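Lab manual, section 2.4: Encoding a predicted structure.

Procedure: take the sequence of the chain (432 residues), apply the prediction step described in section 2.3, and record the output as structure tokens. A sample record is shown.
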Amino acid sequence: MTVTATRPGRYAWFALVILILAYILAFVDRQLLNLLVEPIKHDLHLSDLQISLLQGLSFALVLSLAGLPVGRLVDLGVRTNLLGGAVAIWSVATAGCGLASGYLQLLLARMGVGIGEAAMTPSAYSLIGDYFPPRRQGIAIGLYSLGPHLGSGLALVLGAVAIRHLPESAVLPLLGTVRGWQMVFLLLGLPGLAIGLLVALLREPARSSGAIAAPTLPDVLRWFRARAAPVVLINLAVATTAIATYGLSAWAPTFFHRSFGMAAGEIGGRLGLVTMLAGSAGTLSAGLIGDWLVRAGREDGRLRVMASAATLAMPFVIAAPLMPNADWSLALLVPAVYFLTVVIGSGPATLQLLTPPRLRGMQHAVAVLAVNLIGLGLGPTLVAFVTDGVLRDEARLGEALSITLPIALLISLLCALAAMRPYRRALAAGVA
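Recorded output:
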């Protein structure tokens, strides 16, 4: 059944809430590993580099490459059914992480999570584009984009609660003895099946702008070639900021443990609140300020927001890991996380204005590929490389963060500035 959205009625907002819940779940399942680095390293005898591959590159490769065929399916098929099934797949794979007894098993389970999550963003942005009119898409996408920050924060908070209350090991029926970190993954796999069913039961919205048939692959390639400059530059601006964001989220819990001796339970609670509150505020600010600038006649307003936020984030990501105590470091992470999420939160709505309705699946699949392959793939691993390969001392993790993150933001700033002129030209040419 389809529903046409000429204005965002109650059902559009209800559907948005379900999509946000699914996105939150995706990031809880994705980011929980970051709080459990030390016990997993201990039990499976892993290095920082091996952990970084679980957090980033191997996960990102699968997530990114699976996104391209999934993006095409989004443009061709029933998006709600596709996404509902994907939620179930990554939830089962999350539970599979809890069954891993070695590095290869955990790696394969993480890749399964990536395969399922590949459908999340292309499906959701395409659905939002048809549930909401253009003048409301900035705030709708901003609200949807709360998912990563609420999910990442909840992963830390719920993980901290689980660490405090779950035993170090337990004997479970059929499974035998499992460690505490394994039980956390097993428990998190269950809610996803219910959320996947809710997503599948959503009404599929009619494609907007009278777009009945999906464009052929040659049409898709011609469209991307004609708008290559703004699309590539905007995606690079977001993806390089994602290097800083994922590098920080992957290693911040370990940094606070190594530098200040904080226990995982304490780290999860405090860092989780920073992630949820500052990240949510940044995402909402990106949507509201971007919408306001566009209504005021600034066609490149969202790009201006991205460039400004990348500039403002730099001093905070340099200083926060170098502070002499945890309180000062956490305090400086609040504006750092805020400005990082303003940059990333501005990207999807910027691209949405360029894109025809039946190309949104592929467009956002390409964006997901860039953000995850570059941001998630490189962020955690670059920090680990600087720690292990350049500084050669895992106790200097804070210095590695203060070196890697601002360099990524500088590249993001340059890409956003370079995108402004070709973006204005592409908007003048229209979305056809």
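Check your result against the sample. The longest strand covers residues 169-172.
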